């Protein structure tokens, strides 16, 4: 008689330790208090600077200095009270923040809703060895929690602890990651639509040489691409601080500078802003002499131009990206450094941009739309590759995007970026009135994604995976009916793409195919991970 062997006990995955509520660093009131003082001074000065200059005396200057000291003390006291009653905690349920002196409040980020955790180090906090931890929560607008400020070393530990909590939510009873299932499910190309030979499986024609396959992007195309990028002396000022994961991209300082000088939008915008300020000052001096009110009125322009230039530099300075088990991790920044994470399973849309003077070296900028993250600025978390080579583009797209369904996805993207729009087989504007759109815009439906090409000097590709589409809107009007066109809006989480002036028949067929995709693809792929309702579980009893 055989005896059944006892089933070995299942060892649960390790759980991060529950932490009690803790306060941030004691220096936090000094780091945050100065913002109140600067804001008060800016308001008072902007409204009364002319009168202050005309009525200046030593006595009034001393009185003003005393008031300034009192404002600093009051600001620090209020910041200290806010710090004293502000605590944070990380446990198995998520992240919570308690704050409030008189009116108490509690902010809570459930682990199931946490999308990303980033570490930011503004200049002043960086000089003091502090950092801010930002927890992005699924939702719209400014849906995030900030823990500011804590020691930089502890910030990295806190980031890892929060990600461990998130991993508990995305782990099924068998120990497999739900996020991984979503990526694997998204890897299979969806069925092709029924738009006909010209639309359903649109072929990209051109004469460009084919590049390495996007699915094989893990291996560089040649030995030269395996060499690490050149690191200039300015780049060495800021070590990247990222060592975990597989290297994806690294932007040397020289390439960043050359890319800015080759970007017509950046150069024209900066020069036009400087010339506008110079002309305004010259006209003012010519008509009325040196006028303090005019100079005060130009202060926003004096601030906006350096901010714009510095923002573009911050976006790519010291940029490093690596692929980890928690998604793409990026580090960037000169004065204000930040580290971001993007979960690959949450990416809804890709946007590729290649300006005119970037075509020679083959540089491309990549931004993404991530569900639950609203940070699309120049140095925001959604800027996945500020200026990358073809090899870095292949690695970035190859690790983040699901297959497009072609025999060579990267070669297809390269053709879409380099070939003239009118030579690409796809959906074009039909009416001669839209002669610019007919030569610069084309919509291509591939088995795995909807791609929209646009741009005159700076060519742009908008890539929307077909299983991410959530809303479709067809817009019509008297003029559209007269011209025989329709506008189609394609919505994903956090973004809506507008495909304008499409032929009516092609637009309706495209809407029909994408509507079926939105209703079936993602729903059936993720059905195994749906929660089981309590009533359904006991329905058969």
Automatic annotation (TrEMBL):
Biased composition (Basic and acidic residues): 210-221
Organism lineage string: Bacteria, Bacillati, Actinomycetota, Actinomycetes, Micrococcales
Localization terms from the record: Cell membrane
TM spans (from-to): 32-50, 62-90, 266-286, 292-310
GO CC aspect terms: plasma membrane
Biased composition (Pro residues): 1-16
Domain YdbS-like PH, residue spans: 83-159, 322-372, 449-511
Single GO MF annotation: ATP binding
One matching Pfam family: bPH_2
Organism expressing this protein natively: Candidatus Brachybacterium merdavium
PANTHER family according to UniProt: UPF0699 TRANSMEMBRANE PROTEIN YDBS, UPF0699 TRANSMEMBRANE PROTEIN YDBT
Membrane topology: Multi-pass membrane protein
Region of interest (Disordered), residue spans: 1-23, 173-244
Keywords of this entry: Membrane, Transmembrane, Transmembrane helix
Keyword Transit peptide: no
Entry superkingdom: Bacteria
SUPFAM superfamilies, per the entry: ABC transporter transmembrane region
UniProt name for this protein: PH domain-containing protein
Coiled coil: none
